[in-house]
Amino acid sequence: MPVRFPPVHEASPEGLLAIGGDLSLETLSQAYASGIFPWPISKDSPLTWFSPDPRGILEIRNFTLSRSFRRFLKNHPFQIKYNHDFPSVIEQCALTSRKHESGTWITQEIVEGYTNLFHQGHAYCVGVYDKDDLVGGLYGVCFGGIISGESMFHHRDNTSKLCLYAIISILHQNNIPFLDTQMVTGIVERFGGSEIPREEFLSQLQKLKNINLSRDQLFSSPPSVPNQLF
Fold first, then answer.
1. For residue 101, is pLDDT > 70?
2. Residue 223 phi/psi, 5° resolution?
3. Lowest pLDDT segment from 29-43, 87-101, 147-161, 201-215
4. How many CB atoms lie within 10 A of CB 138?
């Protein structure tokens, strides 16, 4: 039976829209195309789905770099790899403790669901390596022109920022106007992220649905990130 979510305007003030369901390709593709994403409340609770108002995005046209980060880009010793080791990236995202959070929303169900999504070609990851050591990472989804950033981590200074810069460079190269960040964290805000009304986000989402772009095409010729400033 086809997946059917409630209309997003029925979401609670916190953005909670639906409870239950699964993380199959069909469900996730329908969710992201409708401006909805899974965000478990706890590992012991049923799966929950959100569509917040306002919505956090990072628009390419508003992307900003600090002077210190520009210097870091020119001199850092790290290697960036795309879609190299998704299980390790999402595992490290799940293990990373964060301020104001007692646990992680990345449950085992999320790990398995998005790993399957990766194997189906609709999730991606960016990894930053110091030789063979994974020291920073980010993962997200990609459905045509709908690209999200779900979570990231760092074990060395600036490595999560480097991941975010890398995916923004990929979007810039492919004329994708924004990264769906869902909310605006401190790091997203420092790079120029902002909140927009949900209706405006959904209007922009309609345009992205018509972009026929596979993950392989998206990452077919990534720019030389350390030296490409825009």
1. no
2. -70, 160
3. 87-101
4. 26
Residue 169 has pLDDT above 70, yes or no: yes
Residues in the chain, total: 230
pLDDT at 223: 79
Residue 10 CB-half CA count within 13 A = 7
**Two tokens, residue 174:** 């492919």
Residues of the chain with pLDDT > 90, as a percent, come to 86
Strands (E), 146-219: 146-147, 151-154, 178-182, 194-196
Can you spell out the DSSP letters for 76-109? ---EEEESS-HHHHHHHHHH---TT-SS-S--HH
- Residue 14 vs residues 52, 90, 182, 209: alpha-carbon distances, Å: 6, 25, 13, 26
Measured CA to CA, the distance from residue 228 to residue 163 in angstroms comes to 14
pLDDT for 58 beyond 80:
yes
Backbone angles phi, psi at 147, to 5 degrees: -120, 130
User: What is the pTM for the complete model shown?
Assistant: 0.94
Q: What is the rounded distance in angstroms from the CA atom of residue 72 to the CA atom of residue 155? A: 16
Domains of the chain: 8-50 (3.30.70.3550), 55-227 (3.40.630.70)
146 C-beta neighbours (distance < 10 Å), count: 21
